[in-house]
Amino acid sequence: MPIVTFANPTGMPAPAARYSMTAEVTGASRWVLVSGQLPVAQDGSVPEDYGAQADLVIAHITAALAHHGLGWGNVVKLTTYLTTRAARGPWQERRDALFPGTPPASTQVIVSGLADPRCAIEVEVIAVG
């Protein structure tokens, strides 16, 4: 069973939001990397509402993690791509609710576009189990 230690080391600035600066994994027997997930429903539709987009991305990642017998508590790193700052609040609100304890390491980037121009949010995760 892996041991995950999150930290905000001295000599570094405090995180700008609710995340940890580092994640150390020792004794890990298995890593699961989930490709960037877009808010595209099974029927190919994309909700216009940023909160609904965030919910759909979370549902996709939840399914990917569950496929490997893992959950959000196994996530050690998130990378989030947003096409607008307006999507930041809805995404962060939902992201923070996923991690009631110490949050994982995280990177969030505002980009000019994603592969599907209807999407404002894409998230990839690294999990250990």
Count of discrete structural domains: 1
Question: Strand-and-helix sequence, N→C?
Answer: EEEHEHEE
Average residue-wise pLDDT: 93
Principal-axes shape call: globular
Low-confidence stretches are none
Structural class label: alpha+beta
**How large, in whole angstroms, is the Cα Rg?**
15 Å
Beta strands, count:
6
In CATH, what is the homologous superfamily?
A: RutC-like
- Determine the CATH topology: 60s Ribosomal Protein L30, Chain: A
Percent helix: 10-25%
Largest sheet: 4 strands, mixed
Q: Which strand order spans the largest sheet, edge to edge or round the barrel? A: 3-6-4-5
Whole-Å distance between the termini? 7 Å
State the CATH class: Alpha Beta
What is the correct CATH architecture?
2-Layer Sandwich
In percent terms, what proportion of residues is strand?
A: 25-35%
User: Total helix count?
Assistant: 2
